[in-house]
């Protein structure tokens, strides 16, 4: 099976939605809520698990399938949010990487988990 591109995924998603007459439920607010609900399901996969347990689960096919599905759910809702809001999600992601590069210059941010506002000039 050929790897689909983003436009193909977006069209398939919109067709899936429209065939079921679900657009009526896809207000911007409800789509944003749905992103968060799906992100919570993704988070739930790691709840109460120790790092060593998660390391082992990375090789478990059932865990991998659940992880793939939850990530896909978040991604698909994000595509719908972007479509409803009228922006290109890939361009927004590229723009955000550029903004973050300015906020977190390599010479000050390398190896640090601090927020950009906490990075000093003398690190």
UniProtKB/TrEMBL annotation:
SUPFAM superfamilies hit by this protein: all-alpha NTP pyrophosphatases
Pfam families: MazG-like
Protein name as it appears in the record: Nucleotide pyrophosphohydrolase
């Amino acid at each position: 099976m050929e790897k689909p591109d983003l436009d193909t995924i977006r069209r398939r998603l919109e067709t899936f939605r429209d065939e079921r007459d679900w657009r009526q439920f896809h207000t911007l607010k409800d789509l944003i809520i749905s992103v968060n609900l799906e992100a919570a399901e993704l988070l739930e996969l790691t709840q109460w698990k120790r790092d060593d347990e998660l390391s082992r689960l990375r090789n478990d096919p059932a865990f991998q399938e659940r992880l793939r599905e939850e990530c896909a759910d978040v991604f698909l809702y994000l595509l719908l949010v972007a479509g409803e809001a009228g922006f290109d999600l890939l361009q927004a992601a590229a723009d955000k990487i550029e903004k973050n590069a300015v906020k977190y210059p390599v010479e000050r941010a390398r190896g640090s988990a601090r927020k950009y506002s906490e990075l000093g000039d003398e690190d």
